[in-house]
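Subject: BRWD1 protein structure
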Amino acid sequence: MKPKVTMIAWNQNDKYVVTAVNNHLLKVWNSSTGQLLHDLVGHADEVFVLETHPFDCRIMLSAGHDGNIFIWDITKGTKTKHYFNMIEGQGHGAVFDCKFSPDGQHFACTDSHGHLLIFGFGCSRPYEKIPDQMFFHTDYRPLIRDSNNYVLDEQTQQAPHLMPPPFLVDVDGNPHPTKYQRLVPGRENCADEHLIPQLGYVATSDGEVVEQVIGQQTVDQDEPGLEPSILDGMIRQLQLEQDQRTGADQESAPSGPQNGEGTPRRG
């Protein structure tokens, strides 16, 4: 196999250079003379993550597609800490990225299964206030292009970056309680009734009927059996306020796409 360098990183004071090679070795070099100082052995697959410690020039972090995360002392060529990202029932998860916190006391990693792994000193209590699974309900909604070739959300016919704040759901699309919905920027001060997304059944492009959040789905007022929802009105109001804040020339009445005669009022 022809050796190829997959990643390279300087340490904090630029005295050393670490290279990851596709034979799964990490090599530590003297950056001034080019002398090879150490071979770091431990990875079993290619490494695409090399992160230097923000202030300790001895420390380098590596992670790869084998699910291994190592903290190395590159001055001695030794392992300091090791973590293997084993996922119960699914094998290991390849680690795609890692970053140190500015104070060097923590680092976070993301893997191929969508997990965020947080390592560091202290207790985990600050992280317990958020659910284990967090997705936006719009994460996998289809996009289309309009006549000007601009990207739009297929359901609301709006540009994705102009849409109101999404809802937090779990991996199956079930909405989280209202206390979690307020963690989304733009929903901090919403009333409880506006933080409960509506669930419904919609047909996908291949004909499969799935359950999903329909709180932002537009309602055709002329269609029998459908009533305008409080949530739709709230979202249109949020959209109007957002347009006004950005200086858009909007009329005072909401202009939601194809939503009939304006914002539904509460009874």
